Amino acid sequence: MSEQQEFNRSVIEEFRANAGRVGGRLEGVDLVLVTHTGARTGRALTTPLGHVVDGDDLVIVAANRGSATHPSWYHNVVANPDVTVEVGSTTYPAKAVVATGDERARLWEKVAALKPFLLDFQKQAGPRAIPLVVLRRA
After folding, report:
1. DSSP character string of 11-51
2. What family is reported (predicted)?
3. Which of 28, 52, 66, 101 is deepest in the core (most CB within 10 A)?
4. From first to last of its 138 residues, what are the pLDDT tens digits of the chain?
5. What is the DSSP track for 88-116?
6. Which of 45, 44, 21 is nearest to 32 (CA)?
């Protein structure tokens, strides 16, 4: 298991044991667990992600820490948009929808205002526009 996978596993365990709250370097971060289906493997995978609330929806950001490539979970939700969301102690089915056009522009302004470090990630990502994925309750 990679260091990142081990870190995610420990975050997921702590999240589930504490109704969505975790400590350490993620203390105070608004986290959501997204269970998605692997595009190549078909396996169920759970990824802890930061999010921003937009009305009834949650917005997750495929920043990949400013990498030139999208994160694995992004490819998975594009291929298989039916996901399960865990926020706090609530779990529900959702549809993952990539924001485009005016919706993406509006959401990017909102997300960047709340999480200004994403502006640096966008610069580091070069020509890759960081995708925003809206989680809509099914």
Report:
1. HHHHHHHTTT---GGGTT--EEEEEEE-TTT--EEEEEEE-
2. Belongs to the F420H(2)-dependent quinone reductase family.
3. 52
4. 789 889 999 999 999 999 999 999 899 899 999 999 999 999 999 999 999 999 999 999 999 999 999 999 999 999 999 999 999 999 999 999 999 999 999 999 999 999 999 999 999 999 999 999 999 999
5. TTEEEEEEEEE--HHHHHHHHHHHHHH-T
6. 21
First to last CA, the chain: 32
Q: Which two tokens stand for residue 31?
A: 């986290």
Dihedral, CA of residue 138, residue 31, residue 123 and residue 5, to nearest 10: -100
